[in-house]
Amino acid sequence: MPKRGGNISLTSYDDIFETDESRAESQLERVQSIRLSVLVPFKEHPFKVVDDEAMLRTTESIAQYGVLTPLIARPLEDGSYEIISGHRRAHAAELAGLTEVPVLVRRMDDDAATVLMVDSNLQRENILPSERAYAYKMKNEAMKRQAGRPPKENGGQLDHNLFGRKTVEVIAGESGDSVKQVQRFIRLTYLTPEVLDMVDQKQISFNPAVELSYLKAEEQEMFIQAMDEVQAAPSLSQAQRLKKLSQEGGFTLNAAREIMNEVKKGDLERVTFRNEQLRKYFPRSYTTQQMQNTILKLLDQWQKKKGRDQER
After folding, report:
1. Which string of DSSP letters, residue by residue, matches 160-214?
2. Helices (H) and strands (E) in the chain, counts
3. Closest CA to 85 of 31, 38, 45
C-alpha cells in the first residue's frame, strides 16, 4: 500500500515569499514573440519612419531572414506594448507580411524609456536635424527629471555621474557633439514645423536656423513670406539681424523683406538653383554632377547656336 503524501514536494523558501509581481517581472525580461497588432509607437517618437530605399532593403531582408535583432518594448496597462527601439523593423516586418516579431519586453518608467529610445535611435547613420533636435530635447528633459529624484527612486537606471553635472554635458559626452552644439540643436525645436522642415530639406542652413529659432511664431510666418517673395535663403548675418529686430520689438514684414532682399556678397559671383527647381528636368537617377554637366553642355550648344545666328 503506497504511503500517503509520499509524492508531496516541499515548496522552496523563495517560492513561498515570491510575489506575483516578481514572478511577472521574471517572465517579462526575455525575448517574446509579440503580435504586431499590439505594438504601438513610442509617444511623441521624434524619428521619422519613411518608405525610402533603406526601408525597402530592410523589408526585403526581413522577408528573407526574419527579424534578426529583437525590438525592445515595455508593457502598457491596456495590454499593448510601447516600442522603445525598433520602429523601423516593426514597419518593415508589417510590409513583409509578418504578424509577429521578436521583442525584448522590459518594464521601464517613462524617463528611462525615453533615454533608451533616444540612445538606440541616435546610432543611425542618417538623422535629420529635426530628429536630432527633438531627441536631444526629450533626453535632456527626461534626465533632468531623473536627476531631480533620489538615486533609490531612479531604480539604478541613471548613471550616478549625472548628479552634480549638467544633463547637456552628459548628452554631449555620449553623442560626440559639443555642449554648445547640443544646446543649438535643442534651440531648433523652437522653430515652427514649416521652418524646421526647410532645415531638414536643406533650404535653410543650420546656423541661420538657430538664430531664427528666437523669432516668435508669428514672426517666423512673416519671415517665410519674405523668403518666398525674394526667393532666397537667409545668411547667418541676415538671420542674426532678424533675431535682433525681434528682440528689440521692431520685427515687421517690411523690415524682414528689406533684410532678405539684400544682395549677398557671394550672390554677385554665382548663380544658384534649388535642387527641386532642376530635378523635374532630369531622370531620377541623375546625380548633381550629371545635372551640372548636362546644363553646361546645353549652355555651350546654346552659345554656339547664338553665334551662328549672329553671323547670318
Report:
1. GGGTTS-HHHHHHHHHSS-HHHHHHHHHGGGS-HHHHHHHHTTSS-HHHHHHHTT
2. 15, 5
3. 45
Tens-digit pLDDT profile for residues 189-241? 999 999 999 999 999 999 999 999 999 999 999 999 999 998 889 999 999 99
In 3D, which of 133, 78, 138, 93 has the Cα closest to residue 113?
A: 138
> 3-class secondary structure for 119-160?
HHHCCCCCCCHHHHHHHHHHHHHHHHHHHCCCHHHHCCCCCH
* 45 falls within a domain: yes
95 three-class SS: helix
Beta strands 31-35; 100-105: pairing state: antiparallel
Distance, CA of 21 to CA of 27 (rounded, Å): 10
In a domain, 309, yes or no: no
Instruction: Specify whether 64 is located in the same domain as 89.
Output: yes
6 DSSP 8-state letter: T
Determine the distance from the C-alpha atom of residue 161 to the mean position of all C-alpha atoms in its chain, rounded to a whole number: 26
Angle at 46 between CA 137 and CA 242, to 5 degrees: 60
Distances (CA, A) of 262 to 188, 238, 265: 25, 9, 9
Residue 13: pLDDT over 60: no
Predicted confidence (pLDDT) per residue in 42-60, tens digit: 998 999 998 989 999 999 9
Cα separation, 133 vs 126, in Å, equals 14
Q: pLDDT tens digit string along 115-152?
A: 999 999 988 878 999 999 999 999 999 999 987 765 55
| 290 in any annotated domain | no
